[in-house]
Specification:
Elements: H1 10-15, H2 19-27, H3 44-76, E1 79-81, E2 84-86, H4 89-100, H5 119-132, H6 134-141, H7 144-152, H8 155-161, H9 163-168, E3 172-175, E4 191-195, E5 200-211, E6 217-223, E7 234-240, E8 246-251, E9 262-275, H10 281-318, E10 320-321, E11 324-325, H11 330-366, H12 374-413, H13 424-431, H14 441-448, H15 450-453, H16 456-467, H17 473-495, H18 499-528, H19 533-555, H20 562-565, H21 568-581
Parallel strand pairs: 3-6
Antiparallel strand pairs: 1-2, 4-5, 5-9, 6-7, 7-9, 8-9, 10-11
């Protein structure tokens, strides 16, 4: 199997984007660390070369270890032994391969044993790992928790926990969800109380659906303030598994991503350390953690989509029907081409979003050492504003597209795709969770609609428009027409000041904006490399028709018809059940 980095030239292309110079310069603090670490880059070219070499190692491990192990991991899965989660043999081998290569905690500062990589190469690595095995991507990707400890933990906590990632290869988990608190994290009840005698926090309660729940280091959301029921009573804590104060009560049996253990945990007077300040657990720390997780699911979705496309293409090139390979049937090559152009568009949006997050985080980090200049502070706010709406956009868009691409790939396989003889059966099952966890598509829409109502998406679209050269005039004109339609219809909805109506149309409006943004990104890619010419042309024409359909639906929708959509019977049934229970 080919190296996953080498067989995807797009990675190198996106690493060479002009904005990456700003990212690297900020992350490397003008390359001052080369004076203290012999492996720190001397200049931009040296940094890009380092990223490429490390990503090549990731690509090799994905091709030679993780991908070949994926099937056996899916069959074996994890199990509980003596109150501990034991990974499948292949999972253990996968993690060891990345650990031996020094790829745990790769985004952490060098003083804590990390490589000090920006998010951009890390997200590229995450995409490759997900393409190899989506379930394993969750385990490896939870090193994001280390970034949260670095951002919000005390220096004592940083020195205590962060070096363990690279040095010891520890695993991590986000312990947020509870039986009665799924997407609504404000409803978290797990109790945190301060033990005055031992001067330590204690955690008691149950958590459910916890990915990699029996990890070495866990970030736990708990209610620290008595007599509270909302987000203001929640704090974040670090729990170290070596305390042996948590029961792994249950491992969930799942449709997909079977190698990744999903646990129900019971905290029994578990000792824990407060992260940052009390009451900021959800409103600040978890929100930051979730943004990273959403970016991670965006990468995972693109990786799964790429895996599905490659399997479909391979099968179509080898499967003959009616005297010719099915690749030559229009019904099939249309599906394959649409998969490819959508992946090109999604990958462009993924790394555009990652760049926005990278710059805003780099400025935030710099504030710990110096006062930002006025221009820098304005720039930080600008990129934060973009990151806050582009992050839910990529999570929503990529996860939904990933499911469609996996669906179409299985369709191309026909009946054989429904059997476990081909990888697409596992890929198809793995894809389904992406639009559910770390915030469902419906919740991402709620976050992303702010990009419509505040005009952030439209402002950025205008920026892209200004960068398109005359040679791409035809595509620019099509995108300008789409932008006018988007601006017109979104204004019509917003001006009605009808919140339920806005909520009802929000997904359509966000998808319209996303289609235009990705169209422009592909056109701008084409200006840097003509290999994107086909994708840009076909994608813009494809989404123009999609946006027209959404425009017509919204334009002809009568607000009073909202009442017809309300499922009153379900509400009545709930009320009846509650009455019977009473």
């Amino acid at each position: 199997m080919d190296n996953f980095f080498k067989d995807t030239p797009d990675f190198k292309f996106h690493l060479e984007h002009p904005i990456v110079q700003k990212i690297v310069k900020l992350k490397e603090r003008n390359f001052k660390e080369s004076e203290h670490y012999d492996y720190a880059p001397l200049n931009h070219e040296d940094a890009i070369d380092t990223y490429g070499k490390v990503l090549e190692i990731v690509g090799e491990i994905c091709a030679e270890t993780i991908s070949p192990n994926a099937e056996s991991v899916d069959i074996e899965g994890p199990h509980i032994l003596n109150n501990e989660v034991v990974y499948a043999k292949g999972t253990t081998a996968d993690y060891k391969a990345l650990y031996d290569a020094g790829l745990i905690g790769m985004g952490l500062p060098r003083k804590y044993g990390g490589l000090n990589f920006p998010l951009l190469p890390y997200v590229m690595a995450a995409e490759m790992v997900a393409r190899a095995d989506a379930g394993f991507a969750n385990i490896w990707g939870l090193q994001d928790c280390a970034e949260t400890i670095y951002e919000f933990g005390s220096e004592e906590q940083r020195e205590k926990y962060l070096p363990r990632f690279n040095r010891d290869g520890v695993t991590a988990a986000m312990v947020l969800t509870e039986p009665d608190a799924g997407s609504d994290l404000q409803a978290v009840k797990l109790k945190a109380t301060f033990d005055e005698n031992e001067q330590i926090w204690r955690l008691n309660g149950v958590k459910r659906f916890i990915t990699n729940g029996d990890a070495d280091i866990s970030l736990v959301l708990a209610r620290s303030e008595e007599n509270t029921t909302d987000a203001r009573g929640l704090s974040m804590f670090i729990y170290d598994r070596s305390a042996h104060a948590v029961e792994v009560r249950h491992l969930e049996k799942k449709l997909g991503i079977k190698g990744s253990p999903t646990c129900e945990l019971v905290f029994k007077n578990a000792p824990a350390e407060l992260v940052g300040k009390e009451r900021f657990g959800l409103i600040k720390y978890v929100m930051a953690l979730m943004n990273s997780a959403r970016l991670g699911v965006g990468a995972q979705s693109v990786g799964i989509a790429d895996a599905a496309y490659r399997e479909a293409l391979k099968y179509a090139e080898e499967r003959a029907q009616f005297g010719k390979y099915i690749l030559n049937f229009p019904a099939v090559y249309e599906m394959l081409t649409n998969m490819k152009i959508k992946i090109d568009a999604l990958r462009s949006l993924l790394y555009e979003t990652t760049s926005f997050v990278d710059i805003s985080k780099a400025y935030e980090d710099a504030m710990n050492e110096r006062k930002l200049e006025s221009e820098e502070r304005s720039e930080m706010k600008h990129y934060m504003k973009l990151a806050n709406v582009f992050t839910p956009l990529i999570k929503m868009t990529a996860s939904e597209a990933c499911n469609k691409i996996a669906y179409d790939s299985l369709q191309i396989h026909g009946g054989t795709g429904f059997m476990s003889d081909f990888p697409i059966e596992r890929i198809y099952r793995d894809a389904r969770i992406t639009s559910i966890y770390e915030g469902t598509t419906q919740l991402q829409t709620i976050a992303a609609i702010k990009g419509v109502t505040t005009g952030v998406f439209l402002e950025q679209i205008k920026v892209y428009e200004s960068e398109v050269s005359d040679e791409n005039g035809i595509l620019k004109k099509l995108l300008q027409e789409m932008t006018i339609d988007f601006e017109t219809i979104s204004k019509k909805v917003i001006e009605q000041s009808n919140i339920p109506l806005l909520d009802f149309h929000s997904r359509r409006l966000v998808e319209m904006a996303g289609n235009i943004i990705m169209g422009y990104l592909l056109v701008l890619n084409n200006q840097r490399d003509t290999k994107f010419s086909k994708s840009a042309k076909l994608y813009v024409n494809l989404v123009k028709s999609e946006n027209k359909e959404k425009y017509d639906y919204i334009a002809n929708f009568e607000a009073e018809n909202l009442e017809l959509y309300k499922v009153t019977e379900a509400k009545i049934n709930v009320e009846v059940e509650e009455t019977e229970e009473a």
